[in-house]
């Protein structure tokens, strides 16, 4: 494999790769991708461009970059703290215990660390669920990190992690008004690489009246909405999706996260209104207290979900593990060993190719950016990755989708391009060493401020 320096750096021609386009008209093919001015100019075979930088894609897979539709980026410096935590332990340790001590610089470095981890593993878009809006400066620091890292980001403005218990589970506080400033002054361009959404609590985490007011605010500002629902026993009692449907607030501008204990009827309501879903399958199988991944039940309701990491304090921040966890839980369903909500006969199943679609084009649809990314379609922005199929862990790659899902990891990701800009090349991230040293210092400061011993 070789990369040749071009006379013009904004043109890239990848030759002879196995293209998993996620475009229904193009399908999968062995061919070429021409990138120019940050966009996919052509997909085909035997393409030529004398001005382009040539990338030999022979024996490699090229696909759209993965899209993570729900990650709490601010926790990037707290990576791998509690893989055995329950949901309540996570809330106590991170949101309540450490969140109140975050300074803007901690948010900045946490977001940078999460973004770089994402890029290294082939995630080119992240929907940053930012419930660390402790001040306007905290939000500005989070946004600045996304611009700096080079990732495509949907910044989902949320609530503070100061007085965290006052902002969830029946809260009467309305969404922080600083979202207006961000919309009008910071992220007003919906075509930019970093855009704005609203992370709302909904009727599961706030009162019904507050939920309605927050939704009206987001729609007044022209923002898509994300909402955590179906969280354990509390979610089963609240039935947030049903409440929204009955209040005439459920609509296609909403992405619902988890849905673990949402009823099958609620999932059908979601589908009927054109709303989308985000399954954090790795987190949901690791963390007791949430419920199980709703992937198969969503398919039964007519919803093709997106996938997400959630928090790196519990699980690895790559999409490979998320895809494998979803598949592993499906096998428990097939074996009759799944949770009580997944024991209905005849649940539809998915395969590796479906999982790659969930992690790419369905993610773009959930973020409302499928007009510009999520597939290798001429005219879309050039967000793509190249995976080395000649690495020993993937050989002989008889079924490419299955090989990537079953055996892939960040080390197999050789090339990462976001909006036409190379972010990882020859398997090496463009930047990162200094960031991760700063992340360690941030972690130490936070533990000291909270009066906690550093984990041994």
Automatic annotation (TrEMBL):
SUPFAM superfamilies on file: Composite domain of metallo-dependent hydrolases, Metallo-dependent hydrolases
Gene Ontology MF: a single term: hydrolase activity
Superkingdom: Bacteria
Keywords for the protein's UniProt record, in alphabetical order: Hydrolase
Entry protein name: Cytosine/adenosine deaminase-related metal-dependent hydrolase
Gene3D superfamilies named in the record: Metal-dependent hydrolases (3.20.20.140), Urease, subunit C, domain 1 (2.30.40.10)
Residue span(s) of domain Amidohydrolase-related: 62-422
InterPro entries attached to this UniProt entry: Amidohydro-rel, Metal-dep_hydrolase_composite, Metal_Hydrolase, MTA/SAH_deaminase
Natural source organism: Streptomyces demainii
